Amino acid sequence: MMVYFRKRFTLEDLTHFQEEIKGRLEAIEKKDNEDKGNGSGGGNQRKLFLEATVTPADIRFPTDMSLLNEAREKTESVIDTLHAPLRGEEEKVRTHRQKARKDYLEFAKAKKKNRRGIRRAIGKQLRYLRRNLGHIKELSTKVPLSELSRREYKDLLVIAELYRQQDLMYRGKTH
After folding, report:
1. Which among 54, 69, 85, 122 could bridge 104 via Cys, Cβ 3.0 to 4.6 Å?
2. Residues whose CB falls within 8 Å of the CB of residue 1, separated by 6 or more in sequence, listed in order
3. Has this prediction a pTM greater than 0.85?
């Protein structure tokens, strides 16, 4: 909520707050220096740590499962884009969207996630992703990848690397 609250302040307000904080810090330092000079035994060094970053609460931490699910959804979008010119000529390939989504949600909603369940869910998502990447490779022989937007093409390159890394970790049973 702090992010939305902070947006209400103007640049002048923020500058004023910054100057006020700086002035108070200087006053504290001056007082500490005077205490040390008087020999009043105030030898405690005080430090003030300020946290200047504010992070919105609605940003999620990307886990392996959420990354794989997002990658799977993006590959499905790429398949749709590549199949568009072939509509009517060829039947669209199966992506098992509903089943994959159901498997992901089943895992995501589970209260307790043990190692075996995590591994099983990641394996399923990797298999869905492998199937989709195979379909994309097959479609790219019939339709040029130039049909994709720049964003989709970039995402596809990232997804291929994500798949490679996740598959390597899955097969090697490492994190």
Report:
1. 69
2. 57
3. no
